[in-house]
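Priority: medium. Attachment 1 of 2:
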């Protein structure tokens, strides 16, 4: 069973990547400094303060540039329960913070919620893959994530091509869409 904390962070990161956000790093060990968007979103958190907490690092100004996507990624783990009740409760709290921030800033929280639910379901296999790698490595850099993401993209294209090739001898017409 993959560690619940790793699943939680991998959910933030996978959904963020699929929404086109830049993920600088995902870590479940060691220290980092509170980024700007975390200070904006989490009460009592001060920008630049050193913290030792599992974290998905996005770009400093991501909340100003892509607020909807950031909020979706923030709420996503609440749609993937783990075997750790404490982590699940925390995910629920984060989602509430995201929805509250959304409504306060003119973004419909109901849309954030719906997208978070859909995206999390859609990328679930990738989340578990990333989580187990995160559990092994402790930290995933942008390069490691990009490599993985690219592999998956290539794989999806290869599968698509293979399906088309298999379909052709029977129908003749190209059923690709
Ligand atoms: Zn979180």
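Attachment 2 of 2:
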């Amino acid at each position: 069973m993959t560690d619940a904390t790793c699943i939680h962070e991998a959910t933030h990161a996978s959904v963020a990547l699929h929404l086109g956000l830049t993920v600088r790093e995902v870590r479940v060990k060691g220290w980092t400094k509170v980024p700007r968007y975390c200070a904006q979103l989490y009460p009592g958190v001060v920008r630049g303060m050193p913290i030792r907490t599992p974290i998905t690092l996005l770009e400093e100004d991501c909340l100003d540039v892509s607020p909807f996507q950031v909020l979706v990624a923030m709420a996503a783990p609440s749609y993937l329960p783990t075997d750790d009740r404490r982590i699940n409760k925390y995910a629920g709290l984060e989602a509430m913070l995201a929805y509250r921030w959304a409504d306060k800033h003119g973004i419909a929280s109901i849309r954030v919620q719906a997208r978070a639910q859909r995206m999390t379901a859609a990328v679930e296999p990738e989340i578990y893959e990333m989580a187990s790698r995160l559990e092994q490595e402790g930290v995933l850099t942008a390069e490691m994530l990009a490599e993985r993401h690219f592999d998956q993209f290539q794989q999806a294209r290869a599968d698509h091509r293979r399906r088309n090739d298999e379909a052709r001898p029977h129908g003749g017409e190209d059923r690709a869409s």
